[in-house]
């Protein structure tokens, strides 16, 4: 009697379809998670190298590259003052157009030979030297480099977490496919067909313009760790099920990919 009351309560409560386990094929999860993890690692490496080189550049002497001022540009599209400088040093751009303050714009003349101060590792132009004076360029400080490096590190760290877990789950389900399949019997308490434009399952794997089909099961087997679980299923399986059906499901332990969903003949059905 108590079990029937519990089952009735489960059927009446709202089913949460959110799950960290996307229910996709292990092979697809391994590929998608692996590729996203590689992108995240690339961002982490880029941020780490930028941070290290930025710190080293901040305590190192600049690389001084000679150049000739060829033009003053006061009517640039963004309204800022610029100098056009021609450079003849291998490894650097043939021409640079840095933003300067009004002081540099009027004190440096066309035809002047000046020295351009570059950071030795990142090759960022941050100062001009000419006529016995050194002019630090606007917005050339190292703070922007450090902010960018930290942003890359944070983005890479956030992007790495779930894809790495997804790839691991996919690999485990592929590697232990036969030995660790889970089999359990449950009762269908809810079915869902949701058109997804952003994700194949709410909040997770991208599947544009496709319909996601799901089933929520209340497990009869007392060995189940959860009373209610949701699974992604194929369209034909969705159409063959009804609320109240008793089914036997075989699924992967990590991704919860449903390999087989079989209705049990003679089981109760509630229309």
Short descriptors:
271 residues, alpha+beta, six-stranded antiparallel β-sheet, five-stranded antiparallel β-sheet, 11 strands, 33% helix
Description:
The protein has five helices and eleven strands. The strands form two sheets. It has a six-stranded antiparallel β-sheet, with no helix packed on it. It has a five-stranded antiparallel β-sheet with strand order 9-8-7-10-11. Helix 2 packs antiparallel against helix 4. The longest helix is centred in the N-terminal third of the chain and has 33 residues. The N terminus is likely disordered. Helix content is 33%, strand content 29%. It is rod-shaped, with a radius of gyration of 31 Å. It has 271 residues and is an alpha+beta fold. Strand 2 and strand 3 form a beta hairpin. The relative contact order is 0.17.
N-C termini distance: 22 Å
Specify the biggest β-sheet: 6 strands, antiparallel
What structural category do the secondary elements indicate?
Answer: alpha+beta
Strand content: 25-35%
Helical proportion, percent range: 25-40%
Described by the principal axes of the CA atoms, the overall outline is: rod-shaped
> Number of helical runs?
5
Number of strands: 11
Q: What is the N-to-C succession of helices and strands?
A: HHEEEHEEEHEEEHEE
Largest sheet, order of strands side by side?
3-2-1-4-5-6
Low-confidence stretches: 1-12
Rg, nearest Å: 31 Å
- What's the rounded overall pLDDT mean? 83
């Amino acid at each position: 009697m108590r079990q029937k009351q519990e089952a009735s309560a489960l059927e009446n409560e709202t089913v949460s379809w959110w799950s960290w386990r996307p229910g996709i094929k292990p092979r697809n999860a391994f590929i998608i998670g692996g590729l996203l993890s590689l992108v995240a690692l690339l961002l982490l490496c880029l941020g780490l190298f930028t941070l290290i080189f930025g710190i080293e550049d901040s305590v190192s002497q600049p690389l001084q590259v000679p150049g000739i001022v060829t033009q003053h540009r006061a009517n640039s599209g963004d309204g800022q003052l610029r100098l056009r400088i021609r450079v003849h040093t291998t490894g650097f751009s043939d021409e640079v157009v840095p933003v300067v303050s009004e002081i540099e714009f009027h004190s440096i003349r066309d035809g002047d030979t000046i020295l351009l101060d570059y950071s030795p590792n990142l090759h960022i132009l941050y100062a001009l030297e000419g006529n016995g004076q050194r002019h630090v360029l606007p917005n050339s400080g190292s703070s922007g480099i450090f902010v960018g490096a930290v942003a890359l590190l944070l983005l890479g760290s956030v992007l790495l977490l779930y894809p790495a877990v997804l790839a691991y789950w996919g690999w485990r389900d592929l590697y232990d496919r036969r030995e660790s399949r889970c089999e359990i019997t449950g009762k269908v308490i809810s079915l869902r067909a949701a058109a997804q434009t952003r994700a194949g399952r709410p909040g997770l794997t991208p599947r544009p313009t496709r319909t996601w089909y799901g089933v929520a099961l209340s497990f009869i087997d007392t060995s189940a760790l959860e009373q209610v679980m949701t699974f992604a299923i194929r369209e034909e399986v969705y159409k063959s099920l009804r609320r109240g059906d008793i089914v036997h499901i075989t699924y992967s332990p990590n991704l919860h990919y449903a390999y087989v969903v079989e209705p049990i003949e003679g089981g109760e059905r509630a229309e």
